[in-house]
Amino acid sequence: MPGGSPVIEAESLTKRYGDLLAVDGVSFAVQAGEIFGFLGPNGAGKSTTVRMLTTLLEPTSGRLRVGGFDVERQPYQAKRQLGLVPEESNVYTELSAWDNLMFSAQLYRVPRGERERRAAEQLRTFDLYEKRHVKAQQFSKGMRRRLTIAMALIHQPAILFLDEPTSGLDVQSAQTIKRIVRELNDSGTTVFLTTHQIEEANQLCDRVAIISHGRIAAIDSPERLKQTLASVQAVEVAFDRGGPGMEANLRGLDGVTEVVKQGDKWRLYTAEPPALLPLLFDFARQRDLRIITLNTLGPSLEDVFLHITGQKVGTGPRDGEGDGAGRMGMGIGVGKGMGAGMGMSQGRGGRRGG
Fold first, then answer.
1. How far apart are CA 274 and CA 258, in angstroms?
2. Cα–Cα distance list, 66 to 185, 189, 284 (Å)
3. SS3 19
4. 31 CB burial (10 A radius; 0-12, 13-18, 19+)
5. Predicted TM-score (pTM) above 0.90
6. C-alpha to C-alpha distance for 159 and 188, rounded to whole angstroms
7. Beta carbons within 8 Å of 83's beta carbon, 6+ residues apart
8. For position 209, what pLDDT does the model report?
9. Distance (Å) of CA 43 to CA 71, 132, 201, 215
10. What letter does residue 88 receive in the DSSP assignment?
């Protein structure tokens, strides 16, 4: 559970690329034992901020402490606190799972006598031990994802940075990864998560920060953030059939501010869901329609995200039903086998990070 001293402390972090201000005085702290989500649309400064947090990019100004170490004065010690999992699994496909872990252990300077014990432990944790001598090229995407996380944990970091951990995975593999993240967190690992799947952040994170235009626009628990947007409510209804003019007719009901079709369902945004319900019953009866499902919905974390980042709430599918609001990822650019102090690649300059 979150508590104790912060393991990440950012104070007035700023990054400029010439005249372009990519990150504008960002300040926040991540508590030990927390699953912390970092969300933001493309161009908001999210990727640039994360590259600074992971020591891949030097700030123009500001202070940063990771695991109690000042990143500027103690960069090696700070890097040793981090495990980095990029969006694209960075395993060597021509090597076995075991050899990938041995290679990562060497790069992270794990003591020789500890390498095999830790590798076996990680492989069992990630249900890969029976496949330890199989080349990674024969692994499914989900198995490679698990191996990538195991490689990032081989040196027992205090903080794990996860970029889009379930991107492109089937439902079963995605659920496995989320279970592993929770178990890692339960064992004491602090997790810093970036994802464009906002419902994933809602399910996993103790707190989330939303960055917009280079500044932290909001930071709190998902439920508290939703409470700030209590006026955004909706009724979701599915009828036994559709028909011409359905959207226009639904939009004409009293109190409806926006109508969005999502598959076989209609989502009607309104400030007064209870008042809309009898109107929908009348609507169905007059057209000889049968209501299949009917639900009232409060604001989602995606609604909060859209509102804070200046986009119109209620114009697209909620998270888990589409691509979400803009593609988000930290883009940390870690190459295969990159370990602490091993010359990790820096992000590009000349553009606002996203």
1. 16
2. 17, 14, 58
3. coil
4. middle
5. no
6. 9
7. 152, 153, 155, 157, 159, 160, 161
8. 96
9. 25, 40, 20, 11
10. S
Whole-angstrom Cα distance, residue 343 to residue 71? Answer: 15
Domain extents in the chain: 6-227, 233-297
Tokens read off for 134? 């199989």
Residue 342 pLDDT greater than 80, yes or no: no
Q: Which token pair is 142?
A: 């989900």
Domain 6-227 is in which class?
Answer: alpha beta
Q: What percent of the chain has pLDDT over 70?
A: 87
Token pair for 230: 């209590």
**What is the spatial distance between Cα 239 and Cα 232, in angstroms, rounded to a whole number?**
23
Task: Provide the residue count of the chain.
Answer: 354
CA distance 143 to 245: 47
Reported as a pLDDT band with limits 50, 70 and 90, residue 334 is very low
The DSSP code sequence of 224-290 is HHHHTTTT-EEEEEEES---TTHHHHHHTSTTEEEEEEETTEEEEEES-HHHHHHHHHHHHHHTT--
The 10s digit of each residue's pLDDT in 46-100 is 999 999 999 999 999 999 999 999 999 999 999 999 999 988 888 999 999 999 9
Mean pLDDT rounded to a whole number for the chain: 86
Q: Is the pLDDT of residue 25 over 80?
A: yes
The CATH topology of domain 233-297 is Alpha-Beta Plaits (3.30.70)
Phi, psi of 68 (to 5 degrees): 90, 0
Assigned token pair, 281? 């019953």
